[in-house]
Amino acid sequence: MRALRNIVVIDEEKCNGCGLCVPDCREGAIQIVEGKARLVKEQYCDGLGACLGSCPQDAISIEQREAEEFDSEEVARHLGKLAGAGRAKSADQPAEPETLPCGCPGAASRTLHPTGQAECAEAETTPSHLSNWPVQLSLVPPQAPYLQDAKLLISADCVPFAVGDFHRRFLGGRTLLVGCPKLDDADFYRRKLAEIFRQNELRTVEVLHMEVPCCSGLVRLVEAALAEAGKAVAVTATKIGVNGEVLETRRLDAEEMQKSAEVSGA
Asked: CA–CA separation, 84 vs 89, rounded Å?
């Protein structure tokens, strides 16, 4: 059955066949075929974009079009075949050292070691509290290790520009995700967040949004994603003024969110 949904598209002219996207696709939807990364079957692609941040050539994107519906049972069978082929190859060939043929270090998921806890060598240098990379919601894989047991900070794109001391006030000890609920694909964000909530146990979630009405959509996306994932997490929503001041901080009703989660999971 075909449906209108988000799905991966690969620009073969940009692709250099490095293969960095293959391990980041947990469903095995992307394979190297004749020297190029290809979507081997639409049913294997969940459209969440875990592979986006791994391509150094920027050859992978998400588009919305009519495609075969995602089929988790087909994915399981496909992964079983890939695992069997891998074991057969390992039995026939000696192990080779793991190497990366190429890649952009800035695109790979990693845990950082923020300098904010240490004194700066120069007084005019502002320390960074950033503890993860990437931070853009479209690029963050749901299974990134820094998401597990995290204090998650979900910020609208404009907030760090409005708040002069954003790192000191909000970022210390937290995992950061950023996005724009107005200009970006809100439905994609909702499904990506739902997958993050589904795969990880989070300690807290804080949403930072600007005072403009459209920006509060980020809070609604988080609520909808939690309900879709069937999770109830302590969530705080903080509204920021255009001059960088905190206008409002409120705790979302955990009981109501739990009810929404139960209804969604029913």
From this structure: 9
Residue 219: HSE in the Cβ half-sphere, 13 Å Cα cutoff: 23
CATH 3.40.50.300 fits 2-92, yes or no: no
- CA distance linking residue 74 with residue 76, whole number of Å: 5
Which residues of the chain, if any, have pLDDT below 70? 84-124, 253-266
Residue where the block lists tokens 């920027």: 58
What is the rounded radius of gyration, in angstroms, for the C-alpha atoms of the chain?
20
Alpha-helical segments (H) within 176-252: 186-199, 217-229
pTM recorded for the entire structure? 0.59
Q: Is 244 left (phi over 0), alpha (psi -120 to 50) or beta?
A: left
Specify the pairing of strand 30-33 against strand 204-210.
unpaired
Put the strands of the sheet holding 235-240 in their side by side order.
Answer: 175-179, 151-156, 204-210, 235-240, 246-251
51 DSSP 8-state letter? T
Pick the CATH number of 127-265 from 2.60.40, 3.40.390, 3.40.50, 3.30.70: 3.40.50
